[in-house]
Amino acid sequence: MLGLCLWAAGLCHGLAAGSSDRPNLIFIMTDDQGYPVLGAHGHPWIRTPQLDKMHAQSIRFDRFMMGSTCAPSRAGIMTGVHSIKNGVTHTIYERERLNLKAVTIPEVLQTRGYRSGYFGKWHLGDEAPYQPENRGFDEVFIHGAGGIGQAYPGSCADVPNNGYFNPVFKHNGRFVKTEGYCTDVLFKATLGWVDSIRDSEEPFFAFLSTNAPHSPFVAPPKYQQHFQDLGFNSKAAGFYGMIEHIDDCMGQMFRQLDEWGLMENTVVIFTSDNGMTTSGCGLKGKAGRPQVKLGSDAAGKPMMSYNAGMKGLKGTVHEGGVRVPFFVRWDGVIEQGRTVDRVVSYLDILPTLADFAGAKLPANQAFEGRSLKPLLLEEKPAWPDRYHFQHVTRWKRGADPDQFKWQNYSVRNQKFRLVEGVLYDMENDLEQTVDVTAKHPELVAEMKKAYEQFWTEARPLMINDGVPLAEEKPFHVDYRAQKASTGIPAWDAPEIRWQDSTE
Question: Which 8-state DSSP code applies to residue 165?
Fold first, then answer.
């Protein structure tokens, strides 16, 4: 850490707050939403007017690839290095813990004087050294595990018996009891922190990671009821209801940022952490097809499932398992309403945010991503093609990862996706129905060779595989200790204008 501090110290002087060389950064990521569930992406009946508006006001990357599940995506986002090179090979069993030697986004941004806040789902380790306050964040408002109320063998666990309504969150090391629905609370916490520092001379980075629309698929009552009245089962009603509620929250957030006059010096990014979830969307299996009827609209017309013509859902390395929305809005700087079709990935997020901030990347981390700034600001940027490697990595605890090397993997470039040795032309066959392996034997061989090298580099870095499970769940232990000693106080909610979904 001393080297990082010395590296940072030389870059933090003489900077003007709020200027274009140090814009504020707000990064919003939903959980398990995926690419299809947006009106702007062709969904036939979902109501997302605020995100559709952001789509129109942004540059949108239409071929943006995440990991196939939650913690792996977060590890790559936070470091610019592939998840399995950071030890993250699962969402539980201590395999969700982010390598403590990795340099994170807020640590890079500190070199340019940024203050950073994290709100919502962390999912990169529940033990103290792995928590966001020890990874560079100044303000922390989180739940534990990979979802509110979850608990698994080992350290991965949220507060006991936590729920989506009136949840307990951990705020800067102390548990607090909130009022309202979890997504409302997280947006309010984020905006409250922004309000508290927006007049300072320091730029800010806010990372808002909603728990919704993750299982157990419980939306605020009016959103849930809307879909149930149309014939949706409770899970599907909860999933789609949560997304429509997120959309309303996005609208309220933009209105508040506009009111504060922040939009001209703030970059706002919206994305999701992996492909659309399997169970909530109403589809069975992980292929994402065929379409099924979920309900009927007011005119009696069938409301069918929609996967944007792709194969795959969360937990796969097919296009639908990893493709997500990625909208970048910066009023007055980024051209509105333009679509970028270059294949890019979650590993590009840290280099991009660093580039926005004018921060140098530390030399002691082998960053695999690229800054997207040329694609955002240049008419004809140089953008050499490259390979993107993905692996589901959810082998059983105690198994030898090498036994799964050639299973559940893919290699993607601009035109093709190789899935377990089968090549697809993604420009002409988004559904991945035609095997073109025989037509491109040299390319297939080259992709396999590149993947072989990637695995060889990554295998020694899977440091969490094989470690013993922790005997204690820190969120359980600390919550019970605080409850017994000082109690769990009510959260002192920020005084901002907000219409709660339960009111």
Answer: B
Q: Helix crossing, 70-79 with 349-357: angle to 10°?
A: 30
Contacts of 267 by beta carbon, 8 Å cutoff, 6+ apart: 23, 24, 25, 26, 328, 329, 330, 334, 356
- Closest among 322, 446, 316 to 387, alpha carbons compared: 446
End-to-end CA distance of the chain: 46
Task: Tell me the CB-side half-sphere exposure of residue 79, using CA atoms within 13 A.
Answer: 27
If we measure between CA atoms, which residue out of 137, 92, 101, 103 comes closest to residue 118? 137
Distance CA 443, CA 77 (A): 28
Backbone angles phi, psi at 337, to 5 degrees: 75, 25
pTM of the predicted structure, to 2 decimals:
0.95
Contact 502, 221 (CB under 8 A): yes
Q: Supply φ then ψ for residue 204, to 5 degrees.
A: -130, 155
∠ CA(182), CA(187), CA(191), 5° rounding? 145
**Taking Cα atoms as reference points, which of 91, 86, 74 lies closest to residue 273?**
74
Distance, CA of 376 to CA of 147 (rounded, Å): 33
Sequence-ordered list of residues with C-beta below 8 angstroms from that of 258, at least 6 positions apart, any chain: none
Report yes or no: 430 and 319 within 8 Å, Cβ to Cβ: yes
| Helix (H), strand (E) counts: the chain | 12, 19
Residues 249, 270 contacting (CB under 8 angstroms): no
pLDDT score for 4: 43
**Cα atoms in the 13 Å half-sphere on the side-chain side of 386:** 15
Sign of CA dihedral 179, 234, 272, 130: positive
Cα separations in angstroms, 425 against 165, 478, 485: 45, 51, 61
6-64 confidence digits (pLDDT tens) = 333 333 332 333 457 899 999 999 999 999 999 999 999 999 999 999 999 999 999 99
Region of 483 (left: φ > 0; alpha: ψ -120 to 50; beta: rest) is alpha
Would you state the structure tokens that stand for residue 160, as one six-digit string? Answer: 């006991």
| The pair of three-digit structure tokens given for residue 53, joined into one six-digit string | 């508006």
User: What would the two tokens of residue 471 be?
Assistant: 């005997």
Tell me which DSSP letter residue 490 carries. B
For residues 426 and 432, give the distance between their C-alpha atoms in angstroms, rounded to a whole number: 7
